[in-house]
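notes to self, project folder thing:

trying the whole complex as one job this time. last attempt i did each chain seperately and stitching them together was a nightmare. two parts in total, labels are on each line so i dont mix them up again. if this works i'll redo the older ones the same way
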Amino acid sequence: MSNWDWEVFFDAFPMIIQGLGITVGLTIACYIFALIFGFFWTVADRIPIKPIHWVIRWIMEFIRSTPPLVQLFFIFYAWPVVPYVGVALDPFTSAVIGLGLHYSTYISEVYRSGIEGVAPGQWEASTALNLSTKQKWMKVILPQAIPPTIPMLGNYLIIMFKEVPLASTIGVVGILHLANDYGAQYWRYLEPLTIVAILFLVLSYPSAILINKLEKKMNQRFNKKDVLEETKGAAI
Amino acid sequence: MAEVETASTQYTAANNAEPIVKYLDVHKSFGDVEVLKGINLEIKPAEKVAVIGPSGSGKTTIIRMLMTLEKPTSGKIIVDGNYLWHMEKDGKLVPANEKHLREVRGDIGMVFQHFNLFPHMTILENCMTAPIHVKKEDKQTAKQRSIEMLEKVGLGDKIDNYPSQLSGGQKQRVAMARALVMRPKVMLFDEVTSALDPELVGEVLEVIRDIAKEGEMAMVLVTHEMDFALDIADRVLFLDKGVIAEQGPPSEVIENPKNERLQNFLHRFRS
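result (full assembly):
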């Protein structure tokens, strides 16, 4: 480690940490965007009209099958020159839309698995008790569908946090961008990039532990044996 | 069709009240498979009807259509004078919307093979939810009636437990209490003892017997418990290959069956 210089480390640290607000802020903005848009996909996917269903499925598949980096570049560089609908967006907004939209398709699958995880018998019992559609969702389905999705949603938060540095490629000045700038300026990359790695580790590792705990708690609360038993009853 | 006609005219109802439920030539297909091939059936208020038959004969489908869980392919069902799956609009019968279904199915209650209790609610909440939100009862009344009903099925000491803490027999008794607090005019039982361990069947049948004795509610039981059907039913329907192949008082249908397939069916059951 003859190249390691603590002086550089302490010189770069205060500069890089200034980008932490942007990195965390972008993560949260993307996440909220993905949570809301994911809900939109889930609802749209449940519209019982076949052509709409296909179109929605196809769009989701398209978004999922293209790399987020390509989507970011498209939104930032190509979108402004698209005739009629094209708009120029600042880097931060482009990143929120690009990454948020990409992850919304995954979040939507989480919602869907939550809803489909509720046993068919629960819908039937709600009908037999004559609950309205709204009451079915609010009193019976969602209270059972949401808890098991919380750990999965938490995992996506961490995954997104780690994807956010992609935004530095279109000029969002987060910690990676600042480290890169520092490296370019002083020709020292080892220390600044180590700082970036440490900052990511320090933030995502405790979050992962927290989510793990949450998952255990949810499993306990949401008695799995009982759910299995309820699921068996799908006879005609 | 001829077979159906004879089967339904053979039976003369003991009371002359207007039927609470009528099936008029009801058919039901799942994909290419026609499971019900023209059901004509009348159920009188307070009548106890047991439906028996081999698996796949469509017996569960009959009551699931009445609970609006399954839509008939053709034919009509009438509940207390109202079409269930149809409504009148500009003098024409059109398919019912959810609002109409909600109005008519309020008279029907159902107990399921797999209980279908709400696992995130306590026993008491399971019973109280529908009276409060559907019947708009005030919370205190709903709670009191639910507790009374749970006491009646022998679970007064379990009201704050969750379904996962109960045995199968207890769960099924909660499911009955939950359906009963809604005061249905017709109560449907879909093989309610089939998912239970043998030693728990008795306690559930006991509760059904008690409910039946009270009398005012019509009951339709899809069951494999022949002795039980013999005991509480006013009438037994034998369903075979999607039609009512034989019906009448249990003493005739179960003790002295005429239909050959019914004879075989009962024979298999007893051996």
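what i see at first glance: Residues 8-230 of chain A form a domain with the MetI-like fold fold (CATH 1.10.3720.10).
need to look closer tmrw
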